[in-house]
Specification:
CATH topology of the largest domain in chain C: Rossmann fold
Order of helices and strands of chain A: HEEEHEEHEHHHHHEHEHEEHHHEH
Largest sheet of chain C: 8 strands, mixed
Helix content of chain C: 25-40%
Distance between the termini of chain C: 37 Å
Largest interface: A-C, 47 and 48 residues
CATH class of the largest domain in chain C: Alpha Beta
Shape of chain C: globular
Structural class of chain C: alpha/beta
Oligomer: heterotrimer
Number of strands of chain C: 12
Number of helices of chain A: 14
Number of domains of chain C: 2
Chains: A alpha/beta, B mainly alpha, C alpha/beta
Order of helices and strands of chain C: EEEHEEHEHHHEHEHEEHHHHEEH
CATH architecture of the largest domain in chain C: 3-Layer(aba) Sandwich
Shape of chain A: globular
Distance between the termini of chain A: 53 Å
Number of strands of chain A: 11
Radius of gyration of chain A: 21 Å
CATH superfamily of the largest domain in chain C: P-loop containing nucleotide triphosphate hydrolases
Strand content of chain C: 15-25%
Chain lengths: 341, 313, 335
């Protein structure tokens, strides 16, 4: 009996199986115009203590994938129509809403892009943290207040005692994002999903928040999924990267291999299009022609074929499946396959 | 340049498997493209209740237009025995009232009155409301302050008492009633227009127009107003409904135009006989109810069709 | 010659909680065929400065010159005449185009305001859509039928319609996706090469500003804290705030990101309603001394560095006082 309960907690450092394994999830949007596949058979894994970055441009399905993992898909129109989301050994996709409510906030937490809109404007920030604790781990009022204060200190909010009674509008964006993080980590989640956590913040504040998230992860050993469009944020935080385009995974690998040697033409395009301190100023940025296709108007074959510099006949006829050119590396591209063969 | 190159010139797509969409070169210019008006009609038609409402309104308009044709003579003249029940005499399908006037003729001609008052009152209210609201929001400061206080002043006066006073002082005719109804109904439109203008005033496209040196009037009328209009139109359609009710109330109280057939007037006359001949009240009452309901349904449909938040893009 | 200049420009707003000094004593020059970058975090007054230069918000003090003509107090009639010289590109590609007008009408608006004839407008508009890489078919469409990047092209076409001498670009690519951002930046550079237009490029994104700018102004709480050639500032920032901004910007290179020991700037932006005494940056500055709390440093030229100015008592170029910050920067650039 004792041994059973002991196994439940993730043990950072001990290399076990994946903490989260997502198997071929598919999110379908049921719209008046018909069914659209927003996320197309996406699989991924995250280990305890590991950071996975999901990169892509707007409309690539990265945020909706995160919502799918959280069981927060807005119905209508979005629905998880296929696949498993296994956290440790439970398939979250099969849980009822009620059971899922127990998982959310406790085992699985999420932070969103805009801290202002993820906080309730009429409650003090302290109360909002207490609320999360009360939901999952109730204790006496005083004890919970203490816990909340401790969390606020943990996310480095100066003068936590005084800030406890402040309302969100009295705090800056960066401070509010810290509150949101404090709420997310209140019940020591095993996995934290951060959807563009720093996009709404200034650079200097972004640096602070990224650093804070790294520190918290090192301390608690939680798994972390960061969703971003910013390759800079990926390079700064992630262990592994997953690149999405038009609802599909096009490339995955460790952060070093993907940045050193991007395989998919889209990944390469993204990197060329990002101005960075290392390239010579005033040079021409390499651009990806065209724009992200609408879900309703995806081209036949590879979704990237109409913007791809190396597309050939096969790309217009068939959809490339993921191949593994190396251990821990995946790419979905016929041109890469041809080169490798 | 880069836009047109998206079809990747180097690539020759196999003709069989790929059906090259007609609009693959200009990227987003593909997709179904409909004229905005057709789009609007389709969205309106999606709301079934609104279609029913529209049908009722169309019938009402047809009745109003046809009235002088079917009942060419004065509907207020006495034509037969008083208090004839509906269907009792085939000449008077809806019966006669306490004085022996043909209810069908009164209702048909009353539809004209009702529609005229509804439309013109709503038009008056919309013109005043939009002008006040737009001016207040666009110029802000003391202009806003003054205009909004005036609006509040009008809001605090009980509507029906204001109308009755105007009619009593200026005389019981249809023009005065219309103006009085219009004058009490503009406040809501003014507030709505002001709110819309306030949110649009600082939008970047308005700033862009300022930056190119466009004049204030042109910005207000040409740039902001078309964007602010949809909710205002919805509100105006609802003002038509409330104007119908106001007119009926005024006539019911005996302050309507005595020379014009009106639904409210008919109810007013019939109310003393409600125990014996309830149909005298019921027929025009039903007409008022259906008209107001229909106008509200149409307003709802317009809201669906015009409200961009519901647009499925 | 400078096309657009400001001298000691200040902008104030009255708010319920007091006076907000959004722009404080800022001077700048934009020369012909030049791109001047204006960087800073939100609330530093960079957008307000842009709007003040366009006369969209009134200047409290100071003067604005366009091609040497003082436009600070010009009336609305007279200002209309110089509108053709100074134009603006906005941040939000969704908000900056009137959703009720066709693209053709939107692009032609500055021309019709300037009193062009209908036929001339049509010809010019056709030329402009071509120039910004949109198909002619776009002219009859409405803005919502376009993607963000394409809308920004429409905005650029509108700004360039009257052949302005300078375009003020307020965060023109911040709302765009990475791949599209590169298209728009390249387009702006191409157009500059072609027409000789100057840009005042306002952005919070250092990598973009660095890429496009010839000269640079860094703002903090309404004041310029550093200015100079971009090529000089980037390798060796003089103001500790500039250094911190550079250090905070994430680098799209994981090895570099790991190797550099980053010193994160602590604290938050003080309220602009109640800016700190002395140097406004002293509350967050890693090298602040007692003097910084009391005495506000003036913008001064750095000796031996032509064209560079800094507002710091202990700037990092003349005083090599902060080994940690300086070290961060060298490793960052050398790699």
């Amino acid at each position: 009996m004792l041994a059973l309960t002991e196994d439940k907690r993730p043990q950072p450092g001990r290399d076990a199986g994946p903490l989260l394994s997502v198997d071929e999830i598919e999110v379908t949007l049921f719209t008046r115009a018909g069914k659209l596949t927003a996320v197309d058979r996406l699989s991924l894994e995250v280990k305890s203590g590991e950071t996975l970055a999901i990169v892509g441009e707007s409309g690539c399905g990265k945020s909706i994938s995160a919502l799918a993992l959280m069981g927060l898909l807005p119905w209508p129109p979005a629905k998880l129509t296929h696949g498993k989301v296994v956290l440790e050994d439970r398939d979250l996709a099969r849980l009822s809403e009620r059971e899922m409510q127990d998982v959310r906030g406790k085992d699985l937490a999420m932070i969103f892009q805009d801290p202002m809109s993820s906080l309730n404007p009429v409650l003090t920030v302290g109360e909002q943290i207490v609320e999360v604790i009360a939901r999952h781990d109730p204790a006496s009022r005083k004890a919970m207040r203490e816990r909340a204060l401790e969390l606020m200190r943990k996310v480095k909010i100066p003068d936590a005692e005084r800030r406890f009674g402040d309302y969100p509008h009295q705090l800056s964006g960066g401070m509010n994002q810290r509150i949101v993080i404090a709420m997310a980590i209140a019940c020591q989640p095993k996995l934290l999903i951060a959807d563009e956590p720093t996009t709404a913040l200034d650079v200097t504040i972004q640096a602070q928040i990224l650093e804070l998230m790294k520190d918290l992860q090192a301390e608690t050993g939680m798994g972390l999924i960061i969703i971003t469009h910013d390759l800079g944020v990926v390079a700064e935080t992630a262990d592994r990267v997953l690149v999405m385009y038009a609802g599909r995974k096009v490339e995955e690998g460790t952060v070093d291999t993907v940045f050193d040697e991007p395989l998919h033409p889209y990944t390469r395009g993204l990197m060329g299009a990002t101005p960075s301190a290392t390239d010579q100023p005033h040079g021409r940025l390499s651009e990806i022609p065209g724009s992200v296709p609408a879900l309703a108007a995806l081209p036949v074959g590879c979704a990237f074929n109409n913007r791809c510099p190396s597309a050939f006949e096969r790309c217009f006829a068939e959809r490339p499946v993921l191949t593994r050119p190396a251990a821990g590396r995946q790419v979905a591209c016929f041109a890469v396959q041809q080169e490798g063969a | 340049m880069s836009m047109t190159s998206t079809a990747s010139p180097a690539v020759t797509a196999p003709t069989e498997t790929v059906t090259p969409p007609a609009a693959i070169t200009p990227v987003v210019l593909s997709g179904k493209r409909r004229a905005p008006f057709i789009d609007f009609v389709l969205r309106f038609a999606r709301n079934r209740a609104a279609l029913v409402g529209l049908l009722l309104v169309v019938i009402l308009i047809a009745v109003a237009l046809a009235a002088p044709y079917y009942y060419p003579r004065d509907p207020l003249r006495i034509v037969g025995r008083p208090e004839l029940w509906p269907f009792a005499n085939p000449r008077f399908p809806l019966g006669t009232d306490s004085l022996g006037r043909d209810i069908a003729a009164v209702v048909a001609h009353g539809a004209r009155t009702t529609l005229m008052i509804g439309l013109f009152a709503s038009l008056t209210a919309t013109i005043i409301g939009v002008s006040v609201g737009a001016t207040a929001a666009y110029f802000g400061g003391w202009v806003d302050e003054v205009l909004m206080r005036v609006t509040e002043l009008f809001q605090t006066v009980p509507n029906i008492i204001f109308i009755l006073t105007v009619v009593a002082v200026l005389g019981q005719n249809i023009t005065n009633i219309t103006i009085a109804v219009g004058v009490v109904s503009w406040t809501a439109i003014a507030r709505m227009t002001r709110a819309e203008f306030l949110s649009l005033r600082d939008r970047e496209f308005v700033q862009a127009c300022r930056a190119m040196g466009m004049g204030n009037i042109r910005i207000m009328l040409g740039e902001i107003l078309p964007n602010a209009l949809p909710p205002v139109i919805v509100l105006s359609s609802l003002v038509v409904a409330s104007a119908v009710l106001f007119e009926s109330s005024v006539s019911f109280l005996g302050l309507g135009d005595p020379n014009v057939a009106s639904w409210g007037g008919l109810i007013g006359q019939g109310r003393t006989l409600i125990r014996s001949s309830w149909y005298i009240c019921a027929v025009p009452g039903l007409a008022i109810m259906l008209t107001v309901l229909a106008l509200n349904l149409v307003g709802d449909g317009l809201n669906d069709a015009l409200n961009p938040k519901l647009r499925d893009r | 010659m400078s096309i657009l200049s400001a001298r000691s420009l200040s902008v104030r707003f009255e708010t319920p909680r007091g006076t907000l000094q959004a722009v404080n004593d800022v001077s700048l020059d934009v020369n012909e065929r030049e791109t001047v970058g204006l960087v800073g975090e939100s609330g530093c007054g960079k957008s307000t400065l842009g709007k003040a230069l366009m006369r969209l918000v009134p200047a409290a003090e100071g003067r604005i010159f366009v091609s040497g003509q003082d436009i600070t107090r010009l009336g609305s009639k007279a200002i209309a005449a110089i509108r053709s010289d100074v134009q603006m590109i906005f941040q939000d590609p969704y908000g900056s185009l009137n959703p009720r007008h066709t693209v053709g009408k939107i692009i032609g608006q500055p021309l019709s305001v300037a009193g062009w004839k209908r036929a001339d407008i049509k010809a010019r508009v056709c030329e402009l859509v071509d120039k910004v890489g949109l198909p002619q078919a776009a002219l009859d469409r409405f803005p919502h039928e376009f993607s963000g990047g394409q809308r920004q092209r429409i905005g650029i076409a509108r700004a360039l319609a009257l052949n302005p001498k300078v375009v003020i670009c307020d965060e023109p690519v911040s709302a765009l996706d990475v791949s599209v951002r590169a298209q728009v930046i390249n387009l702006m550079k191409d157009l500059q090469a072609e027409t000789g237009v100057s840009f005042l490029f306002i952005s919070h994104d250092l990598s973009v500003v660095e890429h496009i700018s010839d000269r640079l102004l860094v703002m903090y709480l309404g004041r310029v804290v550093e200015s100079g050639k971009a090529a000089d500032i980037w390798p060796a920032p003089a103001h500790p705030y500039t250094a911190a901004l550079l250090a905070a910007a994430p680098v799209a290179n994981p090895k570099l990101a790991r190797s550099r020991t980053r010193k994160t700037l602590q604290g938050e932006l003080p309220s602009p309603l109640n800016p700190p005494q002395g140097c406004a940056f002293h509350t967050r500055c890693p090298i602040a001394q007692a003097r910084c709390h009391e005495e506000r440093p003036l913008l001064r030229s750095i000796e031996g560095h032509a064209g560079r100015q800094v507002a710091c008592h202990f700037d990092l170029v003349t005083h090599q006082k902060t080994p940690d910050l300086a070290a961060t920067e060298t490793s960052y650039v050398s790699a």
